[in-house]
């Protein structure tokens, strides 16, 4: 599923444009930026994810004999262009922000520098991959934030939008902070923990709840989590679970990890009552897991209600990012090479926020030295250099009066857009998913609490360097004066 050749996973217009470029002998190198304009779910940040699949996709790019025959059958592509496609492979450069990094609106997450035919073809798949995985990684980081460090298991496969979304979404959820997933294919493919309890059907398939619990506990002596809400949580489920735990204790076979799962009803009330019953029976280390249509807001609310829950199973709302189903990443042309120099390009909009940033750019993350927290991100042209031993003026590119001068010694800069392909060859090795998850935790720690909060977070400034800001305004002035003279 994930490793297949995805070359035709593109919008038809990319191919019709490609043929147009081909027929007009236009294959100049261009710069395209992938960026998004608004953080999903009202978040103060996003987590970028999906680069590993983008790399696999680009490495595999080629049109098979069947692909070419299919395109020929559409009666729109000429033989000379189809011949070109038959020999097609990617020859360009790609730069990207590593997976698991916290990112902010308007900054290029991926930058493609390639002949326009190649750069155009890969737009759709790159957006498809980055948009989906970044959306779910961001959602997972919010859910895990609400759980305040307690384990969150990803349980959404059955309600995901198809097998790929379920599997790659689970990968992204682990990057964002989940301890593992119920999705076995994801666990195998990406080397992440396969986790789970059991279903109501297990209980219902036995003559009674007690026998179902006993049988499960015998089968899985090292991790016995019993689902207690099939008939009556407090009158039947929890007492039966306690009875089974007592039998295990009496037999000297106490599981290393054991507890109950609540899946319906008032989770705050039921968890507190269950906790009391378990504690009274001497099972103070029994865990209480909760599931049932949870999301970050419900978990946060349950926490503030004092719910006695210590692990969480989250499915539908996480794997589908139900409150915000699209990430909104776009792919915009930023420059075209002419005679060896990149000519910056701009896309105008009535909305100032939507006007693109021109040129071949990179991003510097600016950290406060005292705290290690992010002060701002700075988008600059690649040829610019910065000297940390000098003061740095940063200002908001829209509300330019919002500015600050950073003193030498008080800030550090780190370039976060890294080379991934050079001249068509991959020069980047993706870390494992668990390494990316650990890196993501470090990244989240560089955010201020005010930016992490779930509602109305403080935004992080993404500024333009003075050189880029001036260039953008110069181009805007030129375009505007051209419009007036037309
Ligand atoms: N204490 C609580 N505070 C806020 N929300 C809660 C609390 N307890 C449960 N919830 C949420 O309320 C919703 C309850 O859903 P609903 O009433 O449809 O069914 P249920 O209790 O899961 O029972 P069933 O599965 O039998 O229909 C779930 O989203 C659950 O997470
Ligand atoms: O609520 P979500 O966040 O989507 O989490 C996944 C849900 O999937 C299961 O229910 P389901 O009714 O599918 O199966 P079950 O009979 O095992 O409860 C599980 O018990 C959770 O309630
Ligand atoms: O293992 C579980 O408890 C589980 C798995 C998928 C969906 N709901 C629950």
TrEMBL record:
Q: Give the reactions, separated by semicolons, that this protein catalyses.
A: 5-phospho-alpha-D-ribose 1-diphosphate + nicotinate + ATP + H2O = nicotinate beta-D-ribonucleotide + ADP + phosphate + diphosphate
UniProt KW keywords: Glycosyltransferase, Ligase, Phosphoprotein, Pyridine nucleotide biosynthesis, Transferase
**EC supergroup of this enzyme:** ligase
Domain named Nicotinate phosphoribosyltransferase N-terminal: residues: 8-131
The protein's Enzyme Commission number: 6.3.4.21
Function per UniProt: Catalyzes the first step in the biosynthesis of NAD from nicotinic acid, the ATP-dependent synthesis of beta-nicotinate D-ribonucleotide from nicotinate and 5-phospho-D-ribose 1-phosphate.
Please give the family membership noted in the entry: Belongs to the NAPRTase family.
Q: What is this protein called?
A: Nicotinate phosphoribosyltransferase
The protein's organism comes out as Anaeromicropila populeti
């Amino acid at each position: 599923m994930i490793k297949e050749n995805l070359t035709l996973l593109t919008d038809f217009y990319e191919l019709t444009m490609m043929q147009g470029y081909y027929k007009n002998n236009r294959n100049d190198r261009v710069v395209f930026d992938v960026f998004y304009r608004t953080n999903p779910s009202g978040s103060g940040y996003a987590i970028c994810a999906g680069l590993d699949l983008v790399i696999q996709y680009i490495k595999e790019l080629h049109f098979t004999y069947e692909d070419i025959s299919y395109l020929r059958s559409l009666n729109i592509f000429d033989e000379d262009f189809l011949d070109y496609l038959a020999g097609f492979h990617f020859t360009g450069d790609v730069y990207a922000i590593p997976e698991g990094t916290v990112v902010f609106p308007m900054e290029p997450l991926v930058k493609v520098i390639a002949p326009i035919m190649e750069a155009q073809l890969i737009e759709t798949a790159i957006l498809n991959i980055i948009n989906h995985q970044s959306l779910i990684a961001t959602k997972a980081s919010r859910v895990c934030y609400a759980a305040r460090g307690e384990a969150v298991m990803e349980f959404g496969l059955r309600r995901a939008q198809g097998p790929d979304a379920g599997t790659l979404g689970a990968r992204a959820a682990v990057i964002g902070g989940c301890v593992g997933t119920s999705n076995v294919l994801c666990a195998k493919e990406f080397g992440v923990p396969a986790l789970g309890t059991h279903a109501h059907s297990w209980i219902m398939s036995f003559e009674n709840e007690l026998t179902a619990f006993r049988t499960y506990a015998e089968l899985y002596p090292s991790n016995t989590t019993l689902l207690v809400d099939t008939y009556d949580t407090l009158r039947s489920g929890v007492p039966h679970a306690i009875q089974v735990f007592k039998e295990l204790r009496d037999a000297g076979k106490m599981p290393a990890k054991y507890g109950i799962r609540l899946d319906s009803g008032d989770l705050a009330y039921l968890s507190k009552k269950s906790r009391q019953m378990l504690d009274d029976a001497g099972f103070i280390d029994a865990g209480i897991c909760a599931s049932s249509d949870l999301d970050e807001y419900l978990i946060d609310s349950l926490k503030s209600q004092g719910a006695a829950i210590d692990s969480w199973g989250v499915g539908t709302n996480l794997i589908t990012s139900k409150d915000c189903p699209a990430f909104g990443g776009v792919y915009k042309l930023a420059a075209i090479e002419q005679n060896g120099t990149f000519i910056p390009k701009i896309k105008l909009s009535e909305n100032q926020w939507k006007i693109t940033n021109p040129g071949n750019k990179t991003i510097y993350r600016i950290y406060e030295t005292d705290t290690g927290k992010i002060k701002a991100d700075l988008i600059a042209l690649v040829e610019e250099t910065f000297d940390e031993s000098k003061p740095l003026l940063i200002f908001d590119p829209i509300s330019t009066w919002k500015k600050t001068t950073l003193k030498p010694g008080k800030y550090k800069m780190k370039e976060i857009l890294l080379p991934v392909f050079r001249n068509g060859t991959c020069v980047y090795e993706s870390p494992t998913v668990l390494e990316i998850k650990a890196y993501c935790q470090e990244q989240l720690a560089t955010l201020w609490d005010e930016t992490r909060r779930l509602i109305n977070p403080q935004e992080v400034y993404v500024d333009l360097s003075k050189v880029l800001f001036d260039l953008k305004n110069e181009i805007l002035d030129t375009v505007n004066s051209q419009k007036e003279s037309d």
